[in-house]
Amino acid sequence: MNGHRLHRHFATFLVIVIVMIVAGSLLLLTGCQGLSGTNGGGTVGVGSGSLAFGAVPIGSSKTVADTLSNNTSAAITISSIQGLGSGFSVTGMTLPLVLAAGQSVSFSVEFQPTAAGNPSTTISFDGQNGQAYVSLSVSGDAVTIGKLSPSPSPVVFGNTNVGSNQTSTVTLTNSGGSDLTISQATMSGAGFAMSNLALPLTLQAGKAAAVTITFAPTGAGNFSGSVTFATTTGKTNSNVVLSLSGVGVTPGTLTASPTSLAFGSIQVGSNSSKSETLTNPGASAVTITKATASGAGFSVSGVTLPATVGANQSVTFTATFAPSSAGAASGALSIVSSASGSPLSIPLSGTGVTQGALTANPASLGFGSVQVGNSSSLSDKLTNSGGSSVTITAASASGTGFSLSGLSLPLTLNAGQSTSFTVTFSPTASGAASGSISITSSGSDANLSIPLSGTGVTQGALTANPASLAFGSVQVGNSKNLSELLTNTGGSSVTISAANLTGAAFSVSGLSLPLTLTANQSVTFTVTFAPTTAAAASGSLSVVSNASNSTLSIGLSGTGTAAGTLAVSPPSLSFGNVADGSSSSITSSLLTATGASVTISSASISGTNGSEFALSGISLPVTLGAGKTASFTVTFTPGASGAASASLSFASNASNSPAVQSLTGTGTAATQHTVSLNWSASTNAVSYNIYRSTTSGSGYTMINTSPDDTTAYTDSTVVSGLTYYYVTTAVDSSSQESGYSNVAEAVIPNP
C-alpha cells in the first residue's frame, strides 16, 4: 500500500511539472489572484482582482492601494508593467523588482483623467522574458467638474408695490459631472432676501435644490442686488453670482362709488340692475384681474378682465339682483386687483318678494242655524300675504240670504296689510243655504272665493211628556216622584228662564235654570207629590221660555190618603228560664197593618240585655197591605245567669211608628254533668290512657293529662246536649301502648 500511494504522488507531481513547463509563458490569466509563475510551486497574486475608481473629475486624480505577493517557492523578478495609459499609472513600485518566495510589496494605482469618458485597461506585471506573472483590471469614469447653474438667472422681479412683496423660486442645479458643495451664499442689495437654503449643501451631478428669493421694496425706484454662491468641486473652489433686480412702485388704490348696493324689494322672477364705479386715485395704474359676486341672486357684468385703471381713472360695470325665492338676501362684489387693500369688497343687499296674494281668514264662513226672520253676521279678514301690493277692485256676495258690507273699493293692500269686512245671513225660509264671496284683485289669485253656508230654521218650541202628571193616592207623610221630559221640537235653540209651580204639596228638582235647549234637545227633571192632609190636591208647572209657546203649562194632581197603623202581638214575649249558653226561640209574634198599607223599613232591639235577643224570620223592608199580617221569630240566648229584658222596635210609615214589643227572659246556670268510666285490668299493664271523640270511630283525643294506673276515670269536662265516645289503651313497663279498647257511648242531658 505505501509503495502504491508513493507511486501515485510521484506521478501526479510529474504531471504538474510538465503542465507548468508546457504552459510556461503561454498562460496569461487576467484579473485574478494566484497566477502561476515559472519558479517552483505556488502563484503570484494581487490583493484585488479588479479596481473600479468610479467618477473622477477631469483635472483631479484618485489613488487606490493594492498588494503584489509572491506565493511561489522561488524568487521572481518583475521587470515591466504593461497596459498602462488612459489616465492610469502605477506608483510605489521600482522596477526591476525582485520578490523572494513568500514576499509581498505594496503599490498604488492612480487614475487622473484628462478627458470625459469611461476608460478601462488590464495592467500586467511581467517577468524578464515577457512572462506575465499576474494581471489587474482597472476602470474609471472621467467626469466634468461640478458646476452650479442657477435658474432663472438673473432674477427680475419687475414692478412691485411698496409695502408688498414678490417671490421667485430659483433652482440651483449641478450641471457638471461631479459632486458640488455650496458652502456659503452671500446676499447683497436692499429689499432682497433669500430663504429655504441650508448650508453647506452638497449636490450630486445632475441634482438640484430650490431656494426662495423675496423682493420687498422699501420705496419707489429701481433695486438691484445679487447672491454669491461659494462652491467647491473636488479641490476646486469657485463663486457663482446670481443677479437680482426689481422696481418698487407706489401702489394704486381703488375706491367704490357707491360703497354698497341696496336693491330693495324685487319680485321673484324679475331683476334689478345698478351701476358701480371703481376709481383709482393712486399714482400708479391698477390692474383688475377678477370681479365676482357672492350671494344668491347677485351677478356682475359689463367689465372685461383683466382691466387696467390708470391713475385718476375710473371703470364702470353693472351689478344685478334677480331673486329666485322670497326672503332677504345679502352678498358682496369682490374686486381682486393690484391695488393696495385687494380684494375690495362692496356689500350687496336685496329682498326677494313674491307677487301680491290675498288670503281670507277664515277661509270659509259657516253661520250655522239662524232663525227665519232673524239674521247673523260674521267678520272675515283679507290679508296680502305676498311681497308686493294688491288692489281689490270688486267684491260681491252670492246665495239666498247672504250680503256683504264694510268693504270700500277700490282698495290697495301693501305687503302684509289686512282689511276686514262683514257678511250677514238673513234666512227667509227654513232649510240649508249656500253661497260665496267673490273678491277680484290684482293679486296672483285674481279671483278669490270664500264659501258661505247657513241653515234657516223655524222658531224653537217646547213640548212636555207627559203633558200632565197624575200622582194618584199617596199616603200622608209619604211622597211620590214622577219624571217629566221637556223637548225643543223647533228648529232654533230655546232658553228656559223660569219654572213656576202652584200647589203646596208639589215640588220640582233636577231643573237648573236658565237652561238652553238646542233643536231636538231634551231635559228630564222630577216633580214630587208629598201630601200633608188626606184630600185631593192639584197644581201646575208653568215653564217660561223664548220658544214660540213661551209659557208651557203642565197640570199636576194627586190625592193624600190617611196613614195606616201597625200592631205587634203579643205586645210582650217572655222566654222564662233558659240555661246560660243555650237558646230559646218564639215564632208566635205577628205584625198587622190596619187602615192602609204600611211599609216596615227596619227593626232594632235595644236595652241593657239587647244583645241576648235576636230577630229572624222576616226580611225588611216589607210592605203590608191593609189587614195583612207578617210573622217573625225572636230568639233568647242568655250570656249569664239572671233576668234579662229588651225592646224590639219596628220603624214604618204607620201613624203609630215605631211599634214596640217587650222582651224578657231569665238566664240560669247550666247543670254540670260528668261521665264515670270503668274497665277491666289488662295483663302486664302499668297504666292506662283515656281517649274521647264526638264522632264514633274517629277523631279520638287523649283526655288524661298523666298516665292513669287505675281502671276508673271521671270526665267532668262534658257539655250538655252532646254525645261522647270513649276508648282506652293499656301501657306496659316498656311504654308500649296497646290498641283501642271497645267504644263506650255517653249522651249528655240538656241541661
Describe this entry's structure for a reader:
The strands form 15 sheets. The protein has a five-stranded antiparallel β-sheet with strand order 1-2-4-9-7, with no helix packed on it. Strands 13-20-19-15-17 form a five-stranded mixed β-sheet, with no helix packed on it. A five-stranded mixed β-sheet has the order 22-29-28-24-26, with no helix packed on it. The protein has seven domains: 27-143, Immunoglobulins (Immunoglobulin-like, Sandwich), CATH 2.60.40; 148-249, Immunoglobulins (Immunoglobulin-like), CATH 2.60.40.10; 255-353, Sandwich (Immunoglobulin-like); 358-457, Sandwich (Immunoglobulin-like), CATH 2.60.40; 462-561, Immunoglobulin-like (Sandwich); 565-668, Immunoglobulins (Immunoglobulin-like); 675-747, Immunoglobulins (Immunoglobulin-like, Sandwich), CATH 2.60.40.10. The model is unreliable at 1-40 (pLDDT under 50). The chain is flat. The chain has one helix and 62 strands. It is mostly beta strands and 751 residues long. Helix content is 3%, strand content 57%.
The gist of it:
The chain is mostly beta strands and 751 residues long. It contains one helix and 62 strands.
